[in-house]
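[agent] plan:
  1. take the single chain provided in the ticket
  2. run structure prediction with default settings
  3. attach structure tokens to the ticket
  4. add a short note for the reviewer (M.T.)
[agent] executing step 1
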Amino acid sequence: MSTSSIPARPRMTSRDYQAFDALFATSSRIGATAAGGLHRLTASAEDQQVRDAFCTWLTQQGFDVKIDEIGNIFGLMTLRPGAPWLLCGSHLDSQPLGGRFDGAYGVTGAAATLAALARQLRDHPAEAQCNLAVVNWTNEEGARFQPSLIGSSVFTGAVTLDDALACTDADGITLATALAEIGYRGKTLPALPLRAYLELHVEQGPHLEQQGKQIGVVTETWAALKWQVTFRGEQNHTGPALMSRRRDALLAAAQTIVAVRAEADRHGEILHTSVGRLETSPNSPNVVTSEATVYIEFRSADEALLHQLRDSFSQQMQSIAQATATDVSLDRAQFRARQQLDAGLAQRALQQAEHLSLSAMPLRSVAGHDAVSLSYHCPSALLFVPSAGGLSHNEREFTATDDLHRGLDLLMALLSDLILQPVPEETA
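[agent] step 2 finished; step 3 output follows
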């Protein structure tokens, strides 16, 4: 198809950068912490506020706003009725005391870029081969409700709606109740046939900064093994209770935490491990802990190593339980496979970066993203901009404005390339 009727390929303008800057600043204010970060957990009052602001902005820009049953927010811009959709987005929820760039950049950046593209195509509507949509996925972070990636996983069918809505937070509140309380339990939406999914994100790692590159194009993601492990002992007085008779669940948890780190030290940088959360009961300084739950993560590009660890480390936790006279249960074991992102989209992104004179490099992503969920459903691309010092999930998380704008430039170029080309028959 010829695009000669379009005088120039759509580009971001100063007006578009300003629109993004304002929308991103709005996001950064809602749930802001004194140290410059965000505390905006899923279905909290702050999440409601940012969702309301986002929906208002979308409506003002001419998007048709829809909310599905798991609370995902879609802003739809129909350019060619009946054609598939180019979907872009990320998430607006944050970690506790987290950063203001993680996720929010991908949502606000996508919204501003799609609005700019739609405006520039308005004079040439017949040229568009796809429709445009932006999305805010519910509970990507998995901070208040586990697992992570809930909204995108329900959308793709990887997690059932009933299972997702039944997830509970630390206070026993279900996700269904929490979404209803903030007014974001939506309804079943018609199927949204996708041509592709594109996600902008800060890198959350040091590689782009270390290599002096402006853009990272993710080609694949690491696999992950996540465990919730609970040790149960016996509550007792920390003073007179004999040491030899104690059944201390916290001691078992502490030994497990050390063992988790030891696995990373043993395997080197091919394995990342962590225990990011520890829950104890009754959590009193004068009481021997009767129950302790640890949240374990192993991440690696080597799936065989993770499968090996699943067997060997479970045996090690049994040994720890025996040595501490506790009982152990391994609950909620989750395995996320290593995933290749669409090679054709990645190559297009690298080519568009070159056309824009942006220095770019292919990357592996160690972290999970909604693009991983979508990659099982449609061709997906994940585009990174640098994170200062590689710091993320931290109030001091930072990416320079110029780098944010460069990400928008690449997203616009990639969208323009896709929307002006005939849709392949298999996605039409």
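[agent] step 4 note for reviewer: The first helix runs from residue 14 to 29.
[agent] ticket updated
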